[in-house]
Amino acid sequence: MPAMAQPAVRLLDDDAIVLRRTGVRFPVELRPVGFLAGEPSTWPEAEGRLEWFEGRLLYMPPCADVQQDVAVDVVHLLRTWSEAHPSFVIGGNEAGMKLGVDIRAADAAVWLRSDVGPSVGRLRQVPPILAVEVAGQDEDERVLREKAAWYLRQGVAVVWLVIPESRSVLVLAEAGELRYQAGERLAEDPHLPGLAPAVTQFFLQIDRPSASHE
Fold first, then answer.
1. What span, in angstroms and rounded, lies between the C-alpha atoms of 3 and 1?
2. Which runs of E-coded beta strand occur in 25-116?
3. CA-to-CA distance for 18 and 124, rounded, in angstroms?
4. Are residues 130 and 158 both part of a single domain?
5. What is the mean pLDDT of each run of 10 residues along the chain (214 residues)?
6. The pTM is what?
7. Same-domain status, 83 and 165
8. Residue 149 falls inside a structural domain
């Protein structure tokens, strides 16, 4: 008789997450005792990313090197753009938002400052103008498209899906979608004046030649 498979996720008394990667498909649903989505103090401690979506607490592992390097390039180009457009505020570091009953996070996001007001240490509860997701080793384009559809349903105007493997950026909006490849520049969206980065700007760190230490 074959041995029973161990659970993919379990919660210890201190709420630390123990994860066996073999055969696991992310995101993984967690069921911690005493959890209340609206009470941040009840969320389990996790070395990774947590979202509350459709009544489920979902876990994704920490970002590996490619995903984190590209995410920094995305935030850098958005923050640089915002210097000339101070009416916008840029969120990063798993930018959290509570839209409807769901609590989710983007790799980067752009809000109108007039929509969100001053920063007060709480989740933003209005949709951003732009949400950006960077594909990682556990998130293929299909998974990101599902999240992009959720963003658009919640009132997000534009979604960028950044795909490091193909060095491409997929731009989705209510009117349709466009895919941009290396050598191309994203078309400016009327919601984001002057924001038309070259595709190469998203992948500067991972495409930079390795250099020996001096």
1. 7
2. 28-30, 49-53, 56-60, 88-91, 95-99, 102-106, 108-112
3. 30
4. yes
5. 36 42 62 70 70 70 81 97 97 86 90 92 91 85 91 97 96 96 96 97 93 50
6. 0.76
7. yes
8. yes
